[in-house]
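@channel sequence for tomorrow's demo:
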Amino acid sequence: MRKEFRKLKKIKKKQSFLKNRFFLFGVAVAVCAELLLYGIVLLPFIQIQEVRIKGNESVSENNINSVVLDRLWGKFLFFPTASILLVDTLGIRNALLEAIPELESVNIQRKFPNILTVVVRERGVVALFCQKLHCVAIDNEGVAFKEAEPSPESIVIYGQGQSLNLREAVVKKDVLYVILEFAREAEHRSLFMQGESSFEIVSETQIHARTKEGWSVYFTNTEDLSWQITKLQTVLENKIPPEKRRRLEYIDVRFGDQAYFKYR
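structure tokens (generated this afternoon):
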């Protein structure tokens, strides 16, 4: 009985986990997977060899390409790589939008095994916003995105006090919409003999259209624009003969059913 009791008391020596075949197998699999991953990421034929730029018109391809190339290469652990699998498309997109204000949107596509396609859309110039002799081009959101020089075909808007910082809205969207609609209707209805005008934002609710004939139209973005233009047309056709326009100072169409005008 004593011998049997002693045998039961014996404790088997535990086997070291380093000699456990399942553990060793797991380590081997992990090492092989890591080596395989290194091999795939660093394979020469999936390193980006070409960057294709699409959609640009006024922005040069070289400007876009230089920003892309600055962000193309990275590191996989200690190894430099431009693998198409690891390229930071979001980082490149954000870098392009930050570096080139003329770009409205950027879409980056991978084309395996080694081509990166960058599709851009540029902001469209709808008007120029000026302070004295300094002008910037603005898009349909009122955002300034590049320096610009006035031209005969430009819609020019003047303002006081606003910053002219690129990437910032320098004209409120609703005010810009009213100005563009006024310009379009004035041209469509041939309201001005010389066909051109500029605009001045006097306050949040008052806008002046300054005609090439030397007189102004006072209108507002808080009332129905179509009705204001109708009143303007009626006054010009029925109350102010063409030969008297050179003496005209302004026509005010902001209030109710009336249009007021003043000669110099």
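heads up for whoever presents: Helices lie at 2-9, 21-41, 61-72, 89-99, 173-188, 225-238.
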